Amino acid sequence: MGKWRYGVVLDAGSSGTRVHIYRWLNSDAARAQASQSQLQSLPVLETDKKWIKKVHPGISTFGDTPNDVGPEHLDKLLSHALKYVPLEEVPNTPLFLLATAGMRILPPLKRKAILAEVCNFARKTTKFQLPDCDLHVQVIPGETEGLYGWIAANYLLGGFDKPENHDHGKGHHTYGFLDMGGASAQIAFAPNATESEKHANDLTLLRLRTIDGAPMEHRVFVTTWLGFGVNQARRRYVEALLEASPGAMELPDPCLPLGLRVTTDGKPIESGSEEEQGHAPQLVGTGQFSECMHQAYPLLEKDKPCLDDPCLINGQHVPAIDFDVNHFVGVSEYWHTTHEVFEMAHKDRAYDFKKYQQQVNEFCSQSWEEIKRGIDNKKWGKKVDEETAQEVCFKASWLINVLHEGIGVPRVGIEELKGSQNTTHASLKGAKEKGFLDPFQAVNKIGDIEVSWTLGKMVLYASSEVPAPSTEALAVGFGSNDPGIPDDFQFPGGEYRQYGDDDWHDHLFSENPRRIPGFLIFVLIVFVIGFMLCGREGRKSARQKVLHLFGGGGRPGSLRRRRGFPGKIFGLSSTPSYERVLESGEGADDFELGSFDSTSDNDHSDSSEGSRIGRTSGWATPQIKASVVDPGTPSFYEPGRDIIGQGAGLGLGPPSMFSNPIERGGLMARTDSRERLAGGKRSRASSPSRLRSPMMMPLKESVD
């Protein structure tokens, strides 16, 4: 294993899939270079904007044609990743495809077919680590997505590593996280001490590990609102308009600019269409933003029964939020809707509700013709097209409703904030400029790094690779807020294992397929030595059986002649050698080799060539090679140190080729050696045993 570790995450969203590549120093190199304060920090991940690529549409669109998701979608993403991950590090690099809301709403059978094809295609076309498809290729719950986002935001803001610079009061130093996509929305935050104690059963235990191996624990509340993303909210809004005016062909829509006419799907009215002929309903914009806000409010469904107080949106329980100490950052639509049109020249300007509402009112009161002229003149920047302008008024009304009516974020610019922030002057100045000490601030990047939940996933994974200081140390991951390792605990990259446990022989083969050739060479050496030491008569007997096994023997008593180099190796001269045979009868039957049955191996083979020793269908993880680090640095993987056992087990040999124990005698030396090394465990190559399991900085250095 080289100096750098790499990780690849595919964010499979509802509108497209984006590949993210990250890298970090392996643990030995990181410890060798770290200062005392850095040793108490999380691993430092790096990325680059050219390492990111997105393709459209989302993988959920392949529900009816799952076989096309590989060549028509994944191929571009995986090819992009292979351009930037060094070739020699590809087998050491974990690959994850984690799908979000777009796949969550797909029927289970279609979802399963797509995920299976994703895994098959990635395994066939690349050598990325993909040992467990259920873990590496999956639809993640909204809560998991929110937790990863919370990790990413706090990682970039420094809430983990420098708590003294982020003291929000009452000993609180982490930031809350809000995310809104097309289909769902998430919230994640660490409640204050009172609420944490009151709602302990509702919190998620998150455990990280710093470079020096020390644990870092946080208890976070996370929930998701499926159907409350902007696109799904818009769909529900249009359905409400249709229900309110059954049979009407023209539906006034205050959330569209004045004079704009579109279909109920938001598409332009085409000549000769059903809408133009008056046979299908169409939406007619009236450009009344305050009325838009009013009509969008019921979509919050705050009137739903709350079964576990307190509740916010959709009757879902959320512990009370103390905005004196809980400062939130919002990403995705929170950023795009507040900055893409209205603050395109002020990427770091803090969110101000009063000013934002004024800007939205001014924009949405214009006629559609005025807005189109502004688009043509690039009034709102190059990225604002007609589709963006058409959608922004509803999106803004939905965002304001969710933030202030749903979650209860104070309206900065109108409502006075209670309490005060106790922090250093330097950090206060920097944070105040970007609004991080306000109850809410929309962000896209922090320190030129995009705030993405994929970063949180890889921070957790990189943290899990840091060796623990002792065998009693608890694993990295997250689960229910219970002591130790709860039943639902999720490991970042596989089941948590250590060298030195009772299953060491499984590690020998399941975590690195490259060890198999070395093992076979070792067995061969043992076999040759044993062959040379067994005496002349023993060699003759073994030779006869082996020759017969591989088709070179014949009937008992047949004559075999061996010449040249092979004969010398096996103690044979270049002159004819005549072997003594037994007469037919009772003793002969006991020693005769049976015929070779080739069907037992190929019956279960996934290849036309049949199964082979050491063959596997996946790539084990992590792969362990000699690290290239500074002299004197200890090896990253030493016996007794922690390791995440993520690989699939490998068979140690072919299936039984003989019909009874006596007939296996010809391979006794090989079989005995193999069983000794494997601790008595034998498995078929065609049916391997498997071990399965349920601050960021811009890149400054070229890839080694």
Tally of strands: 21
Fraction of residues in H or I helices: 25-40%
Shape field: globular
Mean pLDDT: 76
Unreliable stretches (pLDDT < 50, length at least 5) are: 419-435, 495-516, 550-694, 700-704
Category from helices, strands and their pairing:
alpha/beta
How far is the N terminus from the C terminus?
Answer: 13 Å
Number of helices: 23
Largest sheet strand order: 15-14-7-8-10-9-18
Strand-residue fraction? 5-15%
Radius of gyration: 32 Å
Q: How would you sum up the major sheet?
A: 7 strands, mixed
Would you mind describing this structure in some detail?
- This protein is α/β, with parallel strands linked by helices.
- Among the domains are: 1-140, ATPase, nucleotide binding domain (Nucleotidyltransferase, domain 5, 2-Layer Sandwich); 508-677, no CATH class.
- The chain has 23 helices and 21 strands.
- The protein has a seven-stranded mixed sheet with strand order 15-14-7-8-10-9-18. It has a five-stranded mixed sheet with strand order 4-2-1-5-6, sandwiched between helices.
- Helix 10 packs across helix 14, helix 12 (353-364) runs antiparallel to helix 14 and helix 18 crosses helix 23 (668-677).
- Mean pLDDT is 76; it is low at 419-435, 495-516, 550-694 and 700-704.
